[in-house]
Task: structure prediction
Amino acid sequence: METQIIAGHGVSDYSHRNQQVLRTLSLFKMGEQQSREKISAKMVSLIRQQDIPLDKRTILLAPPTRRNLARPVIMLAEFLAQSLGIDKLPDEQVDSVRCFGETPYSALSSGQERIAQTTRNVSIKPDIITNKQYVLIFDDTCASGKTLLEYKKAVLEAMNRAEKRPELVLSLVYVRFQTNDYSIEDVINQYLFWNVGKAAETLNAVGFLTTTSARVLRNLGETIFHSLYHKLSTQMQGLLIDHLEPFWQAEKFTSKKIIINSSQPIHLQWNAHTTNLYKPGEIFVFGSKDEFNNWSDNISAPPNMGESEFVVVREGDALRPIRYLSASKRWFIEQTTYSNKDELLFQTLGI
Result:
């Protein structure tokens, strides 16, 4: 079974031509209102171009969340339904359970791996959706299309139980990744945190944690987390501590608790890579890309290196960070270069 997907943007790489779209998407995932409004305007326009009656015959659904955190895609779906004058399927009408032991999509770089993996058991209660003729399935991003396919299957199964058949089931996304390597999906979830000062400004302005921002904060490397935490407002610090408390009780992410309870400043060490054992506050420096490649070929990541921690490669007189993406266990070369050490540390860590 295939599914028709209408996308606001197609993205095949992390180049300058896609920067604006990807930055908007990253800000949206953090909960920023301006980016939500921008994406909403794009999607409303896109939906109005389709041959679909925008009335009570049409319903919109978005993959729900059971976590006690804001999910921007749900907030946007509610706004879209209101703007278009159609119903949104209530989250409680959808049961979506990720199969135990399955690898998250963000950790799979191959589309074939994603399609082959059974990731969710999705079911939809038939008492509302079967009264509709047109179903719009909305998500912010799409890579392999597996999530959208799972929800389309659940819609058709609910309809079939009621012995009905919809006129159309259409999937809509803001960004569709048009590539066989989905490392870019991992990148956008962390992109804002690569400039700690601006990430703190964004989080403080938003005033709440989203499912994405909470996940990234939990997994951030200790050096970045230390710098970011002390730039957060008292309100955001409190929300973060409340979020982490259950994990600490389960003996998870305990290094974050030590950082929060410590008043000690971070001590950075700008070192050559004399060892594979990474220590918090240490930044490995390589004389060339070849030197980094020779080192990284023998190790997937230095032990103790957390999300978005980076090494530095010299390119003539410039310095380029290379980030570690812990979810997908990959390295990502930043597009930005810096003229000197002080500029790099200020722009990335706010130090």
